[in-house]
């Protein structure tokens, strides 16, 4: 059975309430662009909304096949990777600062939280793999700060898979999300990072580069954390994370269209 789509689960009304929402929310609701990152000088970077809103493709499946143990997808967007892993019965959580992205992810059966990576998260120090794909190494506009934060989220020796730009670039900018009509979202800091720059930042923030590859026109780097951790954070992986993330069925299963996987979060003690 194919994965349910947002349109399958909740056909939009003739005059949807989100029609006046920001450009990113509208694009996720419709599943298509055009959508761009707009720099202050007017430069535009097209965003691949249709690919993000589709099912995981061959390149995505290759990435997911490299994942180990419990997976944290940072900036999960509309949730194709989280839904795919959940459908495989894998332990996974997506996080995103966009409520529309989190809503779409959970509708597809993928557990997700409306939260920034820089806020407290479930099972810190116990995730086995983290994903930074689709340009999400740009989150916060400071790759060094982001890599430092991720070292706190993974187990010692944990795996981080980062998608980088195929060119040699290291740029920090302030951008808006805009659409074909020129509507602008709220400005935010962003970074554009090539492979060489990413490896340089990784070496200075407690990561070892273990692999790099290009496939389907996309470039990736695999890193492993090597910083020393406290005994509390290294004793176990995220597998027993039921204290903070409880799957309603208490077991991994592929969700039906009517009953997406639901996760309840409560404060750890």
UniProtKB/TrEMBL annotation:
Record's keyword annotation contains Transferase: yes
Any GO BP annotation: methylation
Keywords associated with the record: Methyltransferase, Transferase
Biased composition (Basic residues): 226-235
Organism domain of life: Bacteria
InterPro entries: SAM-dependent_MTases_sf (IPR029063)
Region feature Disordered, mapped onto this chain: 224-269
Record protein name field: Methyltransferase type 11
Species this chain originates from: Streptomyces aurantiacus
């Amino acid at each position: 059975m194919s994965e349910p789509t947002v349109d399958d689960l909740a056909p939009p009304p003739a005059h949807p309430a989100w029609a006046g929402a920001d450009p990113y929310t509208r694009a996720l609701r419709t599943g298509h662009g055009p959508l761009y990152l707009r720099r202050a000088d007017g430069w535009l970077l097209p965003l691949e909304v249709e690919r993000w809103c589709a099912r995981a493709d061959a390149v995505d499946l290759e990435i997911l096949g490299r994942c180990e143990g419990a997976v944290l997808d940072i900036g999960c967007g509309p949730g194709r990777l989280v839904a795919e892993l959940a459908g495989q019965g894998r332990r996974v959580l997506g996080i995103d600062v966009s409520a529309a992205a989190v809503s779409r992810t959970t509708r597809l059966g993928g557990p997700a939280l409306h939260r920034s990576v820089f806020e407290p998260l479930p099972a810190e120090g116990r995730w086995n793999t983290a994903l930074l794909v689709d340009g999400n190494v740009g989150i916060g506009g400071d790759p060094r700060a982001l890599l430092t934060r991720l070292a706190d989220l993974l187990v010692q020796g944990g795996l981080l898979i980062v998608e980088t730009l195929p060119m040699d670039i290291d740029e920090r900018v302030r951008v808006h999300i805009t659409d074909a009509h020129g509507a602008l979202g709220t400005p935010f800091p962003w970074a554009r990072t090539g492979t060489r720059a990413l490896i340089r930042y990784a070496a200075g923030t407690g990561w070892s580069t273990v692999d790099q590859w290009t496939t389907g026109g996309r470039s990736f780097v695999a890193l492993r954390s090597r910083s020393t951790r406290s005994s509390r954070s290294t004793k176990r992986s995220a597998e027993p994370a039921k204290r903070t993330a409880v799957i309603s069925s208490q077991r991994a299963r592929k969700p039906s269209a009517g009953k997406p996987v639901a996760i309840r979060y409560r404060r750890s003690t």
